[in-house]
Design brief:
By secondary structure, the chain is mainly alpha-helical. It is built from 4 helices and no strands. Helix 2 runs antiparallel to helix 3 (about 55-75) and helix 3 runs antiparallel to helix 4 (about 75-95).
């Protein structure tokens, strides 16, 4: 009888361990999504910096924030290619570089 209880508790322990790893991986994704969704209109910040003729560094920072948020929302290589086509020349003109694909998918 003791062996059966020990076996059951061992199996339950393994399930709990797997569940903890699963939850912790989901928490990282949830945290990233909350950070992106809680930000205000990032494209509006870019347009504001551009239209107010702020420094190139401020405009570049706003553009980078917007592009990063868009890449986080859709982590596909297709979306990265679309963003690269649209924003690469703008990043270069502001003194920056468009980032390489940052995800390991």
């Amino acid at each position: 009888m003791d062996h059966v209880l020990l076996l059951i508790s061992g199996i339950l322990g393994i399930f709990v361990l797997v569940a903890i790893f699963n939850i912790s991986s989901n928490l990282a994704a949830i945290k990233t999504q909350l950070l992106v969704s809680s930000k205000k209109d990032l494209y509006g910040d870019y347009k504001k910096a551009y239209l107010m003729k702020r420094s190139n560094q401020e405009i570049l920072y706003a553009a980078q924030e917007y592009v990063w948020a868009e890449m986080i929302k859709d982590q596909s290589k297709k979306k990265h290619a679309e963003l690269h086509e649209i924003w690469s020349s703008r990043f270069i003109s502001l003194g920056g570089e468009f980032p390489e694909y940052p995800f390991n998918k």
